[in-house]
């Protein structure tokens, strides 16, 4: 393709994108395809010869689009928004056109410097303290664009780990690093995003997952008690990841409380993950949600969620950039340049070396909307969420399950988790609306997020009408099913009563001969289990076991370590969330004390017990189940 054709095709592409976005509501929001659908439509090999552009574009419409979930669709209310806007698309296009790889200042000075400036702009607009801004006099901090919030959490945990290990090594110069590493403990709430757990797996550190309060907010006292308990067990708290705007219900950890408590544990890194909610802090009235940020060592938010910026653009600020980069610096000669000491080299701020010119799209967005335009957009989404909340509250069959502070509303039908699962499943299957569930406080809830850039009040009303229609249909069917079940059971019970009475009549002389039966005919009442008819009184089915755990430890790879620690056993559950199992370490065993790692033998015992239990429950297991159990054991080995 030469530049003449690029001009032509470029204009056609812009036309295609505009048509796509303008006519989105004519499409199903989610595709109706099965896994592997595309394999049947595309050839198994790449074409040997160049193909015609028009044919490629026809295939986009005929083969690709049927498998696309339309995240910008006005009926898409799942997850959090996927930022998108024309200025951002054009900014990305320009970045792609320039095509530089800005890993160091010298590799493309504008790429580095614009990133620093734009991050300072956004940091100020959000209301971050001055020490997070790179260009503020005397500041040691600064901002960087990462690919995702997960990466922000990972690099901050890596930095905290490096800092903690350095400190421990200085205190215990003759202790092997692997042993020191096995002592490190990170903390987060049960409501934190799973990326914290993934980061802990990558960092090879233990993670203690704590119970939040009834509002899904992690409290200072909970953190304090957990850390104190762990220190007594010989563990070393080194990192706390808090969340402002949790994924499940947009809840806020109590940052002021947590920050205050952490002052009793000097050296512990406090991270704030505000992937979605952080964008909203550009509105003055929402800044109180950022209270406590003065205690934080790092903060991240994703403009690619809620600031009209396309993926990928996840912004991270740190209080001390040297503490971040010292965990990640590798300096081969071929990457050194004359200004290494005077300029920022963003390759030291993250995992990849190569970096796109991502600040361009954020720069285009900030300039073309202005902070006021972005504030208007955020407020508009919040207003829509409030409207949806009101609609839910008006229908007494439903309940609201979160404090609606931003654009996310969590709701459910009053009734069982199963009922709500069914409701969501039939709505999503219809392709008319898309929402996702979450488990908050061990209850199944449905998340409704205001997502589309130009969503209107009518869109919200329309979505609610769809939900109500499906709920009516479901409740009617449920009631019908319940009634027929009651009738069936009654029929069976009456039959059983008659049969039993007959048997007793012929075998019991007291019944057979009323003369000897002073008390008369025995009462044959058989109590029916009272079936639930009214929706309001339907029992809540708990999906979790009734055992209450104060906290979990995700110890994903800990069995690989063999600590020689002989301390007393911990009473804390170990959680292998990725294996969907949990165990309690036995204090009587070697290697199972707190602060040490569960040994492979213990894990094998555990798996064997699990396997026996499984065999008792389902004695005839399919070959697949057998394979699964043995692969779990392989994993643990
Ligand atoms: N943290 C929070 C609070 C989130 O809500 C999400 C995703 O929704 C993430 C982290 C992960 O974001 P990313 O996909 O950018 O890694």
TrEMBL record:
UniProt keyword Lyase, yes or no: yes
Give the CDD domains listed for this entry.
DOPA_deC_like
Disordered: annotated span: 583-637
> Which biological process, per GO, is one annotated for this protein?
carboxylic acid metabolic process
GO-annotated molecular function:
carboxy-lyase activity; pyridoxal phosphate binding
Q: Where is the composition biased (Low complexity)?
A: 584-600
Keywords linked to the UniProt accession: Decarboxylase, Lyase, Pyridoxal phosphate
Q: Which PANTHER family match?
A: GROUP II PYRIDOXAL-5-PHOSPHATE DECARBOXYLASE, MIP05841P
Protein name, as recorded: Uncharacterized protein
Q: Which organism is it from?
A: Drosophila erecta
């Amino acid at each position: 393709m030469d530049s003449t054709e690029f001009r032509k095709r470029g204009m056609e592409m812009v036309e295609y994108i505009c048509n796509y976005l303008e006519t989105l509501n004519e499409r199903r929001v989610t595709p109706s395809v099965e896994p592997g659908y595309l394999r049947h439509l595309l050839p198994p090999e790449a074409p040997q010869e160049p193909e015609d552009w028009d044919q490629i574009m026809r295939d986009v419409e005929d083969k690709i689009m049927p498998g696309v979930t339309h995240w910008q669709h006005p009926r898409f209310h799942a997850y959090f928004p996927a930022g998108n806007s024309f200025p951002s698309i054009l900014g990305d296009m320009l970045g792609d056109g320039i095509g530089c790889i800005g890993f160091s200042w010298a590799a493309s000075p504008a790429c580095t410097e614009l990133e620093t400036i734009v991050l300072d702009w956004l940091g100020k607009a959000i209301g971050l303290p001055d020490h997070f801004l790179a260009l503020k006099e005397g500041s040691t901090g600064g901002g960087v664009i990462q690919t995702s919030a997960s990466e922000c959490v990972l690099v901050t945990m890596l930095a905290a780990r490096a800092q903690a290990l350095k400190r421990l090594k200085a205190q215990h110069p003759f202790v092997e690093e692997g042993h020191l590493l096995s002592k490190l403990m990170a903390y987060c709430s049960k409501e934190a995003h799973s990326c914290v757990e993934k980061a802990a797996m990558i960092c090879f550190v233990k993670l203690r997952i704590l119970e939040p309060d009834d509002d899904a907010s992690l409290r200072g006292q909970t953190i304090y008690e957990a850390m104190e308990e762990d220190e007594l067990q010989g563990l070393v708290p080194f990192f706390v990841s808090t969340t402002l705007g949790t994924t499940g219900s947009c809840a806020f950890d109590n940052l002021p409380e947590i920050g205050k408590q952490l002052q009793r544990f000097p050296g512990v890194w406090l991270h704030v993950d505000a992937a979605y909610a952080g964008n909203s802090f550009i509105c003055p009235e929402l800044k109180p949600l950022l209270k406590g940020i003065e205690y934080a060592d790092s903060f991240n938010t994703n403009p690619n969620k809620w600031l009209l910026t396309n993926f990928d653009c996840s912004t991270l600020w740190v209080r001390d950039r040297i503490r971040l980069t010292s965990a990640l610096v590798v300096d081969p000669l071929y990457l050194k340049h004359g200004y290494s000491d005077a300029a920022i080299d963003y390759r030291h701020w993250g995992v990849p070396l190569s970096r796109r010119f991502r600040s361009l799209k954020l720069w285009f967005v900030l300039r073309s909307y202005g902070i006021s335009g972005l504030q208007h957009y955020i407020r508009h989404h919040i207003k829509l969420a409030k409207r949806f909340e009101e609609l839910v509250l008006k229908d007494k069959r439903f309940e609201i399950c979160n404090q609606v502070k931003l654009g996310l509303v969590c709701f459910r039908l009053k009734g069982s988790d199963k009922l709500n699962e069914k409701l969501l499943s039939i709505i999503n299957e219809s392709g008319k609306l898309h929402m996702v569930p979450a488990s908050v406080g061990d209850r199944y809830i449905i998340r409704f997020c205001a997502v589309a850039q130009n969503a209107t009040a009518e869109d919200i009303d329309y979505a609610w009408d769809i939900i109500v229609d499906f709920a009516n249909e479901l409740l009617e069917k449920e009631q019908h099913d319940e009634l027929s079940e009651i009738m069936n059971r009654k029929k069976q019970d009456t039959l059983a009563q008659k049969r039993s009475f007959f048997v007793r009549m012929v075998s019991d002389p007291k019944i057979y001969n009323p003369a000897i039966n002073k008390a008369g005919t025995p009462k044959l009442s058989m109590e029916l289990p009272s079936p639930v008819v009214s929706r309001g009184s339907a029992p809540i089915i708990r999906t979790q076991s009734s055992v209450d755990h104060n906290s979990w430890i995700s110890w994903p790879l800990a069995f690989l370590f063999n600590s020689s620690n002989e301390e007393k056993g911990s009473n804390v559950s170990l959680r292998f969330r990725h294996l969907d199992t949990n165990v309690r370490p036995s204090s009587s065993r070697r290697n199972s004390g707190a602060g040490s790692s569960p040994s492979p033998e213990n894990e094998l015992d555990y798996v064997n017990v699990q396997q026996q239990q499984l065999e008792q429950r389902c004695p005839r297991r399919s070959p697949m189940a057998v394979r699964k159990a043995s692969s779990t054991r392989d994993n643990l080995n």
